[in-house]
Specification:
Helix content: 10-25%
Strand order of the largest sheet: 1-2-5-8-9
Oligomer: single chain
Strand content: 25-35%
Radius of gyration: 18 Å
Order of helices and strands: HHEEEEEEEEHE
């Protein structure tokens, strides 16, 4: 298929994939973006071509060590991933017309359902949703006050 590109904006929109568009929308709503290993993708970098992880900010923890109080930042919570390609769950394959939302824990379902519905209507795709029980526990190395 031949493309007739006449401007820089057309070139950028042609080169931009679905995950870049999703990442931009999620960042507008105050979320951070993660890659495959649930590690934050810096603002200036593109997310992976086939999925976008959704990171939600957490409130800092109030700690006290040797009588000195301070706030300790927490890692952002990965509440789910949106697959746009190369993923099959329960016989449903992610492609250009149907994306898959992996939701980590039932407590994140309402938030991810809302995000999925907004993205679905914005880009004209169906999004199948699957909830996974999330049993990860955060551990910090050299954390003095538990």
């Amino acid at each position: 298929m031949e493309q007739n590109i006449s401007s820089l904006n057309e070139l950028l929109s042609f080169l931009e994939n679905n995950t870049s568009k999703i990442a931009r929308e999620l960042r507008k709503e105050g979320y951070e973006i993660a890659g495959h290993m649930e590690v934050k993708v810096p603002q200036k970098k593109q997310p992976p071509y086939d999925m976008v992880g959704v990171l939600r900010k957490k409130e800092p923890i109030k700690k006290k060590v040797f009588g000195v109080s301070y706030n300790k930042a927490q890692r952002k919570d990965c509440i789910g991933k949106i697959w746009t390609n190369n993923r099959e769950i329960n016989g449903i394959e992610a492609n250009d017309k149907r994306w898959i939302a992996e939701i980590y824990g039932p407590e994140n379902f309402i938030e991810m359902d809302g995000l999925s519905n907004r993205l679905s209507s914005l880009y004209g795709v169906q999004i199948s949703k699957f909830v996974y029980r999330d049993s990860r526990k955060e551990r910090y190395i050299f954390d003095l006050a538990s």
